[in-house]
Write a structure and sequence with these properties.
Structural class: alpha+beta
Number of helices: 1
Helix content: 10-25%
Radius of gyration: 14 Å
Order of helices and strands: EHEE
Largest sheet: 3 strands, antiparallel
Strand content: over 45%
Number of strands: 3
Strand order of the largest sheet: 1-3-2
Shape: elongated
Length: 70
């Protein structure tokens, strides 16, 4: 197994559909500018309530990516 050094960024995704969709949206958006993403960790989940119903999920994640070069 090769050894890696990781850097992390913290992101918050939102979705009206589900917490999983909020995570997916955050990762997909980050993939447009962050290379070599390898893992994510959910660090917080919260939501917005309107009319006594869940209106939006907000999920904060840490995304780890490998650094390039030696």
């Amino acid at each position: 197994m090769s050894e890696h050094v990781y850097k992390t960024v913290e992101l918050t995704g939102s979705s009206a559909a589900s917490p999983e969709d909020a995570v997916r949206r955050a990762v997909e958006r980050a993939a447009k500018t962050v290379r070599n993403m390898r893992w994510f960790e959910v660090v917080g989940t919260r939501g917005h309530i309107e009319d006594q119903k869940i209106a939006h999920w907000q999920v904060t994640i840490k995304v780890g990516f490998t650094l390039e070069g030696a």
